[in-house]
Amino acid sequence: MRALVRHAPLAVVVTDFYLQLQYESRETAYPLTGIRQIFESSYR
After folding, report:
1. What pLDDT is stored for residue 42 in this prediction?
2. Are 36 and 14 a contacting pair, CB within 8 Å?
3. What is the CA radius of gyration of the chain?
4. What does 1-44 look like in DSSP terms, one character per residue?
5. Percent of the chain whose pLDDT exceeds 70
């Protein structure tokens, strides 16, 4: 359960990116800023 809670914010960002890429536009920008923010706040 701890791993699920820890990785949930990252999963949300990546899932949103994937859905936008698949259903809205192939030109959807990779969410690097969002991933970095989550990494800096959660994984250090």
Report:
1. 79
2. no
3. 12
4. -HHHHHHHHHHHHHHHHHHHHHHT-TTPPP-HHHHHHHHHHH--
5. 95
